[in-house]
Amino acid sequence: MRHSAQKILSKINRQEQERIIAAINSLTNTPRPSGCKKLSGRPAWRIRIGFYRVIYEIQDNKLIVTVVHIGHRREV
Question: Long-range contacts: 44-50, Cβ < 8 Å, 24+?
Fold first, then answer.
């Protein structure tokens, strides 16, 4: 997870943090869960968790998922 995403996550209330962290952890098993969307113009994906969105990149050849950004739906 990028430092900027960690910083944003730390400012979100604890209950939402736990939901977001659980969703991020599930990406290790299923990097493209149902409901995820491919972002146009960049090699990134988006999932929605409540009022928040998590933007992440997948490196299939290395089996790495990097969280790029976390933000409220109206801001992302």
Answer: 44/68, 46/76, 47/23, 48/73, 49/16, 49/19, 49/20, 49/23, 50/16, 50/19
